[in-house]
Amino acid sequence: MSLLKYSNTEEKTIHVNSDVYIDSFKKKIQETLRDFEAQSEIENDTIKFKRIVRSTTHSGQNKIEAMKLVREGLIRIERIDSTKIRIFWEVKLDAVLFLSVSIGLLIGLIAGFAGSMILISTIIGLLFSAIMYFVGCSIVKSKINELITSSY
To answer: Mapping DSSP to helix (H, G, I), strand (E, B) and coil, where does residue 36 land?
Structure first.
């Protein structure tokens, strides 16, 4: 796994015409992405999606919008043969990396101002950055896997 991308592939055996299944899968994915508040476009057998983070005037809504971690990616569906298909998805993790580093810096600064030595506050900041990155990655994985499985 790359530090800035999460990708996965799944093969599925189907019992109907693969072309019909692929078309219905694309429609279901686009509906799910619309509910997910993401813009999507289809290029051949690839669905590219992007979630736009909006700036709103409602109190607290900006913070909720900024915390949405699944922002951009693609889903590709290919026909292997008449009864098998392959679904490939890839999600960018740059928002997760940015948020985890920001949280790590904040925790490190708080530890530094609390009277810790520079080395200890740096270690605490790096530790929290790593923890937050892996927590964010697991959230992204569960969200995108849920999105894919809900469209079967």
So the answer is: coil
- Residue 40: helix, strand or coil by DSSP? strand
CATH of 5-149, one of 2.30.30, 2.60.40, 3.30.310, 1.10.150: 3.30.310
C-beta of residue 25 within 8 angstroms of C-beta of residue 147: no
- Per-residue pLDDT of 25-67, as tens digits, reads 888 988 888 887 788 888 888 999 888 766 666 666 655 555 6
Pick the closest to residue 84 from 27, 144, 16 (CA basis).
16
Indicate the SS3 state at residue 112: helix
How many Cα atoms within 13 Å fall on the side-chain side of residue 38? 23
Q: Helix, strand, or coil here: 35?
A: helix
* Domain boundaries, given as residue ranges, for the chain: 5-149
SS3 55: coil
**pTM to 2 decimal places:** 0.79
